Amino acid sequence: MSVAVQDPPLALGAGHGGMPARAAVARWAWRLFRREWRQQLIVLALLLIAVAAATIGLGVGASAPSQASTFGTADHLVTVSSTGTQLQADIAKLRSSFGTIDVTAHQTLPVRGSANGIDLRDQDPNGAYGRVMLRLDQGQWPHGPGEIAVTDRVARVLHLHVGAAWDAGGTRQTVVGLVENPLDLNDSFALVAPGQVTAPDHVDVLVKASQAEFTTKPLPDQTSIELRSGDDASTVMVLMLTTIALVFVGLLAVAGFTVMAQRRLRALGMLGAIGASHRHIRLVLLANGAVIGAVGALAGAAAGIAGWVVLSPQLESLLAHRIDRFTLPWVPLAVAVMLAIGTAVIAAWWPARAAARIPIVAALSARPAPPRPAHRFAAIGAALLAVGLFSLVKAEQTKPLFIIGGVLATAIALLLLAPVGVATIGRLAHFAPLASRLAMRDLARYRARSGVALAAIALAVGIAAVIALSSAVTVAKAAAPAGGNLPADQAIVWISSKAMSGPVQVLTPAQTSQLRQQVDAIAADLHGATVVPLTGAVDPTGPLERGGRTPTMLGQPRATNTNGRDGVVFTASGAVRLFVATPELLEHYRIAAATVAAGTDVLTPRQTLSGYEPFPGRFPPWQPVLQRVQLPSYTSLPNALITAHGMTALHLSAMPVGWLIDAPKVLTTAQIDKAQEAATAAGLTIETRPTGADQARLADEFTAAGIVLTLGVLAMTVGLIRSETARDLRTLTATGARRRTRRALTAATAFALALGGAVVGTACAYLAVLAWYHRELHWLAHPPVSNLLAILIGLPIVAYAGGWLLAGREAPAIARQPLD
Fold first, then answer.
1. Whether the Cβ atoms of residue 546 and residue 503 lie closer than 8 Å to each other
2. Rounded to whole angstroms, how far apart are CA atoms 491 and 762?
3. Residue range 335-360, pLDDT digits in tens
4. Is 216 a domain residue?
5. Rounded to whole angstroms, how far apart are CA atoms 451 and 502?
6. What is the pLDDT of residues 382-401, one digit of tens each?
7. Which of 258, 413, 442, 583 has the largest count of CB atoms under 10 Å?
8. pTM assigned to the model
């Protein structure tokens, strides 16, 4: 008896072949990469540059000055303002609450001729949390009375060296070493042995405890607390910029992989004809993308590490931070490498998906797939653009999540709207000359590769346009006749580096007189400028801040509860500048002293100061007697003047905070720069109205950089596109087309992509800026015309000229096209 067994029908492309088939396809993809790596050099170079730049950026971000320069390895900084036995009791209370603490006493030593004294510290070099904030460069640590170490800057100013004698605060000290804060090279101080500062201005206590633990422990009175926030912001920012850069690289990579897929179309068709499934065909291009991504990312990481080792010593003075050249944030670097590899794989996925869907017969004939309708992508792109603009509106220029979401949604919308631009180019080809018509229709025919190229160009143009438009807003604000921080013909010289918001050094009359001479010299260079002293009010019984006392600024208090105790936190939002009503200031604002009523506390143009307090939580609710006067509305000038009656009621003391310089005409950029140099040399800070010149220059530089970047993108994408059409050029040459016609094809391709990218990128940039400044649209009435004309007109013209001049000279003979 015989049994007939029927074989199952053979179906080409059915099944997946298992691991052997995948391994064979992967080996073939590797061979293709080895054979055609020159054609993929553009994507490799872009990935290499992006990862190398990210590596150096991560090194800079990790080595930038951070809160470790103040906190060391602790996470809370408690400043104690008490003195004598109470100070010792407060320190003992902190030690009993938290166990291990690190104590540093500070005393300010006056320096003749300078408003800023020298910080004398008795910090322990082997402290539990602060040892990372000290480094011995020369000599030895001070160990007892009469020994002191100084930083390099203090040594230069006072002409000191190891072994020299120094009369520090009336006590003769011997300089035994040169020290520094390796985490902040700008930190100038003198160091003595622990316990040698007997009359400290304030004491810093470093504490390491969780926030929950810290809030449950008892704290001494008369303390201020600083909480360490995260130090990873720079690393996160570098990774965000790297992601944006890789999105840009990915757009170009999609164009490159699309061209490579079209070049290999016949080989892929042969692979499908012998039974490969769609998954195998996709695997060819995906494996190729993974290889390119791995090679480019690893080579970029190696180049970046080598560049960092070479550049890091030169960055120490710029970053004011000691750098260990062999220490990099390796985990974020690994993330950047993985992002680059993922970018290449994702960029290869879309062309791989499209190539796998092409029928075998069409693939063998190397016919491109018909373009998909552009309106489908346009609908999604328009929706994403609306979401992005809505996010920018809701961001109110302050909410990071909305800002990031809006930027990413707008960038992705560019990619999805690009096919509409390519389709429009194809429709406009009817009105162009013959050579340009062929080039424009070729772009529309190969919409997959042209669309991503147009998106990359639009993204580069959009970034430059956004910066140009934003800079124009800043320039317009600076040119406004009213509003802003100061009039254009005035300047304020502050004693503090943080104006009225930070502590000001308490000066002796001699120091004040010497600084006034420096200010008079600055005013003399402005030809006829007058100088008006500005005096602030301070609480003499309040805690001494770092380097001085904080002058009064009326602020809105907000109730808080810390360690079970009710308190008030000062909120500077809506703050009012409060100065002492000195005779000079009253005369400057033409307020006759005789018109001020005897019981008046504050002179102000405001109706009421309800809800404001000068020192939140230190006084009972203050109900000042107001008198309406005319005062300027500029934010840095006085909004209110406290009288002698108000000073007496609150037991305040007057303290010089700066000088107002009133020039006879608008200050020029050269005058501002010269005044800035003179103020810095005297240890002062000068504030002027922004001229907008820097912003205008920034806009010009970014516009030029955007155009150069766009031309580079055009060179790469046009080179890819024209290389794919080499066979068509041979056909044109055989039919009698001259070299001029062949050059016109390349020039028209570059012109069309440049013009389309400029229009799409500028339009999206304008919409984004409108959403960003939706509450102050009047500032957009002064657009940067020259910058926009350079983008919309100059860029396409330069692209056409470059395409014409740099087009390759194709051989006139027709060569046989070899099979892939």
1. yes
2. 37
3. 888 888 888 888 778 777 777 777 77
4. yes
5. 53
6. 888 888 888 888 877 767 67
7. 258
8. 0.60
